[in-house]
Amino acid sequence: MKRHDDTWRLIGHALLSALVIAVSVFPFLYAISSSLKQGSGLFVPDLIPRAATLANYRTLFHDQPFGQNLLNSALVAGGVVLISLGLSLLAAWSLSRVSFRGRTLLMMTILSVSMFPQVAVLSGMFELIRFLGLYDHLGALWIADLILTLPFTVWVLVTFMGQLPKELEEAAAMDGVGVFTVIFRIFLPLLWPAVVATGLLAFIAAWNEFLFALTFTLSTEQRTVPVAIALISGASGFELPWGSIMAASVIVTLPLVVLVVYFQRLIVSGLTAGAVKG
To answer: Which helix (H) or strand (E) holds 118?
Structure first.
């Protein structure tokens, strides 16, 4: 009887997993299908196109500098991740390993920054960007996107770093090791799963960010892909070329899918290996 119940439980889990996968993957598959259609074929709800074509992809790169927009998004997202993780590691060490008055208030202040909607800080951020002379420059997005990524990365790394044994730090202090060496040479390898997870989420947030990118960039060459997709228009200026929009959406989504699949395996291997060996 127990084996029979386990079999039905396994079948139920398999069916539920298949349903979740189908619901999650179907929109992306339909976007790929639509990107391979043209004309009236876009309005035919067939998952497999009858006359597949790559014309939408060729048009996308021919009519606008979409390759440059992709590069801009990669530079912005990569820069934001590096800055966020560098600052977060330093902040996490001081907030989790050093006792000082007002530490809890400081952590709550950092967390409260993420509670404000983007539009609430848009005017103040615009004045800061203009004062620094970074308007219509990718550096403006490196600064602005930190509002979205830094509070989260700090809080996650504070939690993980607080769980590391203090014996590691004490042994390093006895050897005369400096703070930066402790953080980046001793703690960082142990925090690798947390760093990868927070870095990936920060990359996705910066890659998909739209409002700051629309406000702080003006020229076509400085736009990121979310803004570039939003400004795609047809030859008449009124018709939306859905085929090109679907092609752009597929191209933008593929890097995120690859990163999630690759880093998911890395996180699992890091967690199963263990952080501290006796």
So the answer is: helix 118-132
Mean of the per-residue pLDDT values for the chain? 83
Q: What is the pLDDT of residue 62?
A: 85
Token pair of 267 as six digits: 């996180």
Alpha carbon 49 to chain centroid distance?
31
Kindly state the tokens that stand for 274.
Answer: 């263990």
SS3 153: helix
Query: How far is the CA of 239 from the CAs of 190, 200, 214, 220, 236, in angstroms?
Result: 53, 36, 21, 20, 6
Least confident of 81-85, 94-98, 168-172, 188-192: 168-172
- Sorted by sequence, the CB contacts under 8 Å of residue 139 that are 6+ apart come out as 132
Query: CA–CA separation, 56 vs 252, rounded Å?
Result: 14
Domain with CATH 1.10.3720.10 in the chain: 64-273
pLDDT of residue 271: 47
Cβ-contact 128, 143 below 8 angstroms: yes
C-alpha–C-alpha distance, residues 138 and 142, integer Å: 7
- The third-level CATH classification (topology) of the domain covering 64-273 is MetI-like fold (1.10.3720)
Q: For residue 152, how far is the Cα from the chain centroid?
A: 12
